[in-house]
Amino acid sequence: MQELPRAVRLLIVARAVNRLGAFSLSFLTVLITTRFGASATVAGCVSAAFGLATIPSRLVGGRLADRIGRRRTIVVGLAGCAVAQLGLAAANGLVMVICCAVLLGLVFEIYQPPSQAMIADVVAPNEQVRAYGLLNVALAAAGMGAGLLAAFVGRWDLRWLFVIDALTCLLCALTVRLVLPADRRAAAVKTTDPEPVIAPWRDRVLLRMLAAGTLFAIIYLQIMITLPLALDRAGMSPSDAGLLFTTSALTIAAGQPLMRWRLLSTMSAPAAFVVGYGLLALGLAGYGFARGLPAYLAATVVWSVGDLLLVGRAYALVAGLAPPGGKGRYLAVYGTSWGIAGIAAPILGTQLLQHAGPVGLWTAMALACLLLAALQPAMVRAATRPGKAEFQPKGTDSKAAGTSVPERQ
């Protein structure tokens, strides 16, 4: 395997630094209820408003990435996050908190599409899955440190969490500005290809990928959001979820070197999706029937291995679907799946938990994984069929990316 380009490695390090401070949002509802005396309902509505605002945030980030460049957009997005976070820390009333929370949502996802597009620009298609995987591992490892930092700082004053988050955003923005390559001029990505450029929202293959990605995000967010409640319903401590999250991060980090094995590195995308979703289904079904912490830990390892096989593959497919100069917009449209899921997942998960219990919740999620395992191979074939650029970009785009791109094996 080739070594990843220096720009990608630096980007991964910068994002990991940013992730070290990305813990404050978990305490937003606590800040609203304890410091300003608002009800849990009001706090939930503010969180929902933040989640809704992240959807246009992704779209703006994708458009800016293709218009003004990757590096500039990342810096703008992170700087905006820092301003909003400092506003939350300094807020002296509920109205200002609500305004800053919505502002944070509007800028929160701006840096995501250019980060993903930058990887797609400079990494050969057959290495993109590994690059996205390494980014995910770095964020997971930094997330473990973030949890420890939050537990320490949060004992003083919750507002300091938002201050530290703002500082890590600014540090990441400064790192990106100083060490990443300058943005190319817009003319560098023009193409002489006579084929019309398809707008992201009119690309049927992309929309099918978006639907599948939304379902995956809904499943994944059940682990992040509903798992503590499910543990409580199962007679365990909700705080055990932290141990399960750490186990998952360790599994993904420890398993990353295994992706270099020939058996896994040469696995076709359809096979990887089927095996990955199958393991995810098995692990989540294990949650439904687990009795005791060891069983939950074993199930966590199983679904985390599945996640290891899945991470990055969908982003690589979407990047390949994009026309020259359109990677940012395509990745942004696909990324709205997390914003949509952020609104739907808490409602769906809590309703399933209330009416069907933990067994019903995790069984439903496992069945959804099996549905994705059945449907995803057809989507991969549609994305890689002749006429689509996935893994075989036209020469103009390859030159604009500043790298020669080998054809897919």
Automatic annotation (TrEMBL):
Membrane topology type: Multi-pass membrane protein
Positions of region (Disordered): 386-409
UniProt xrefs under Gene3D superfamilies: MFS general substrate transporter like domains (1.20.1250.20)
Highest taxon, organism lineage: Bacteria
Segments passing through the bilayer: 12-32, 38-60, 72-88, 94-111, 132-154, 160-180, 205-229, 241-259, 271-290, 296-318, 330-353, 359-380
Domain Major facilitator superfamily (MFS) profile: 7-381
Main location, first listed in the record: membrane
Naturally occurring in which organism (per UniProt): Fodinicola feengrottensis
Protein's recorded name: MFS transporter
Pfam families: MFS_1
Keyword annotations: Cell membrane, Membrane, Transmembrane, Transmembrane helix, Transport
Compartment(s) where it occurs, according to its Swiss-Prot or TrEMBL record: Cell membrane
